[in-house]
User: Fold these one by one.
Assistant:
Number 1:
Amino acid sequence: MALKDIIFDGAKFVPNNYATFLTKSEAPSELHFIKDFLSHSEIGFALTQPFSICGTQVLTFWRTGHYDYGGKHGTPSIVFTANEVEYVVTPGAVRKALHLPESCQFSSAVEEPLLQQMMANLGYEQSLAKLGQLKRPYIRKEWSFFFNCITKTFANKCSNFDAIPILTQQIGYALLNLSHFDYAKTMLCFIGDRMKEDKNVVYFARFCQLIYNYCTSDEPKLAGELMEPFRLAKRAFTDLFTADNKKGVLRPLCIPLSVKQALLNVDAATYSLLYPDVQPTNTQQPSAPTPATPQTQTSAHANQSSAPTMKPSSSRAKRIKSVPQTKQNRRRMILRDESEDEAQVHTSEPVAKQLRKCLLRKLMKLGVLGP
């Protein structure tokens, strides 16, 4: 059942960007594992927050916003004004506003064969030849609910939620296979495109509120302007079970290993009984090794050879920056650098005497002086 538009200050808030308040009190027990998985996934915050939106603040963002796609290789952005201050919204700002993960490199679009394999593994019962025409009634209720949550939250539309769009499949694949989907850039482009179409027809009201909150540091809201966001209705669960009952024979429920491991991390006491042969993943990502500095490298070497620790010379860095990089000067700098290093290791002799010996040896090797 589609919800009606909300009218506020002459603008129409269309029913999309639904909130899926992921509590177990409303959902049947068969769907609890999907709710646990989604609520603790990387999109858990984006699926549920905020619990209310301020019509004035959302319209300020929507009506003053100017969208720039950024070109083929550029970065999309929205510039809006609130309280006489301009704010620039980039994908990075959207990630922070929606509590989405950062990544050094986001995954490109998943190829069709991989999406087809995913849908087949989840028990989709009809042809997978045309991925853009998949429907939720042809998959088990558990995964129908999974895709329904994604579609109603992220899809750039306000109707035909029985479909499983390509975007929903891409997001589902990212969640099930732990790949890095760029939710923030996608949502920013969707919002910007809709913003350009009509300043009085608002899409993605929840995300607009979260972006506004992040940029303005949670500016206070007037109680009389608060509205509840669109959210999944209880009737959705009844529809899911009705669709399953009509099928007669159901395929066995397939739960990917990544989902089972994630559930064990969420509630080991409950899910270890259901999946006794599965080990939870390490919830703490191993920290990246710290690049070794010259001090740590030479200290390790000194411990092995019982030689004094070598410290980098600050004067050396200054010389490298100031001396022109000709072939002759490079040779001179190498000589000075190596002689200084050797001088710091052999500390039993006076420094000046060590330098003279090192320089003489190097000059003899280069043929500048005879033996």
Number 2:
Amino acid sequence: MYPATVTIDRVFSVAYRWGNPGPRTEFGFASGNKRYYGLELPGRPAIETGMQVTAILEKEGDWSSLQGWLNHTTGELVSPSRAGHVFQLLVCAVIGSSVITSLDNAMSIAIFLFLSVIALLSGSMLWRAHRATKALAALARAAPAS
């Protein structure tokens, strides 16, 4: 995770969407002579001209990998939520266990395939929760000590 501090000179194309695992804000902004389009943050954070933010990028210099930010103007911390991913993981586990208990041994191949899909979904949810935790920790390190 890589921190990048910028001052937002102009904001454009702000749109609020409902996505997975919750509300998301899509936007673009200009800082100095650079423009960034198609960015996305979780929730509905304040995005205004004149804000100074420290963003956490998953890839250095790549704003399309934006994970969250700390708004130095208001102190607002925007980062992915772990709760939504953990909830999805629990739903997968409950559905998986209920299907397994309802099937007999004659369907062992179907059970194996179903468990494989559940395992892949669970792994994806755990990976997303891990990335959210890393982004939050990086933002906490970037926050100025008060």
Number 3:
Amino acid sequence: MSDVLPRAEAPQPPSYPPKTPPPPKRPVEPPRPEPQQRMSYGPPGARTAVAARGRMAVTMANRRGANWTLDVRPWAVSSAPAKAQRLVVDQLKGWGYRPDTDQVDGLLDLLVREAIGDGGHRISVHLADQDERALILVMSHQGQQAPADDGFLTRLAALGVASCGVDTDAEEGGRRRWALIELRPAP
């Protein structure tokens, strides 16, 4: 008698695709940096540490507002002040004011040209009104600003603004320049 051994069959491929591994989980968010200490200079010889906090965002709440982003690359620089002037004056007229166009034109020319001086590819112009006053804010979005011009606020105040200011934050990049002007309602 011969012993017949059964022949092993070749393994059959599965009739379904292999199971794919699940995608990797999102990495854990790194911890947020602790606020740094900045040195604030007071009277001569006195140095005090002040806790630094992030620059507050521009917030316009409970009032009308508008904003525009302007391209200030080399080929568009010459038209940016005029475009900002036209946009702001048209918006103020749309809100029912009679703006002093000479004042607004001079103001925006100065604000926009200073923002262009910071470098970068764009600036933004923000406008808000409340109680027959308008806030015009121009922001440069460039981390490496030109040095601050000491006479800028003096020239801005000479244009008859109610209030004005400059805010710079080198960590986040950008500089905010703003002016508050009085408006007359349209008859």
Number 4:
Amino acid sequence: MDNVSEFLEVNVTSPVNRFKQPEWLIAEVFNVVAIVTVTWVSASLITNGHRTGKWRKENVYNASQVNAGAVYTSAVVAFLLSYIRLLPDQVTFNIGYYDGNSRPCEISMDVSIVGYTLTITCIYVFLWFRQRSLYQHPAMNFANRPWLRYVNWATLFVIVGGCIFSGAAFTYPENYTHSNRGCVSRPKDKFTVWPIYVSNGVIIVGQAMMLFLFMFPLRSQVQGNNACRIIRILKRSSIFAAVCVVSDLVAMAILAVVVPESTTRHVTVTVYDVNMMINLTSVLLSFETWPEIIRSFLKRSGKAETSRDGHSSTSGATGDTRV
């Protein structure tokens, strides 16, 4: 009853001037910075991928290069998909100021949620390809166990399924409407909330499984050629996978415990956008050569370059994409 009263109170007062609204200003500034950042990194990744031959046709005949290409391509796709989140956010931030029609808020938020779901899903697909390519390296033969292969595929299924379920739970019902302060959430009943809790629980289970896959090899002694390099890549990948998971959990906790349900979408969308950008940054930093990647857009185009390690099976199998 309190939620309904607060909700009605928000909708009967006169609309505020959004240009004097702190939530609007913060959301707009972060959104613009995020769009510029994503544009730069996307262009750099594509340029670097072209110059280093990540998508050469002959790579399809080399399993190690296929693995490296899958890792790199999933990173590029994750950045490109984030546009489906960030651009509709601009609409969400600037509509719903007591215009008498809640439909624009619902549509813009639904599109934004779909973009967020696709981006986060692709980020975890990237992490999955990352650990899978590491497990296929010859130095990791000790981890080539049947039950680990089942866990590997189950992790992908659980995370992707959980993300899709979560996206559907947020978009299927009529969740958003207008107010004097912009778009806000409608009061939720238990039939609306429980699918969100269940889907988030499934995602958390998948995240735990993903971290297990990254950290399990660190418990054993990696042997053979390039063992030190494999360990270094494993540790680096594990750290950034953990950053993604912790960031997701913190965003969930903030919105579930700290932020009131009646808060405008400026705040809640920005919290999730910060989380998404932390995830995307972790994807970029997981490449050892990320400084060269982000500078590649500034370099003159020339002949396709090879990686520092050439097209060795080590570089491809680890998905390290050294350039």
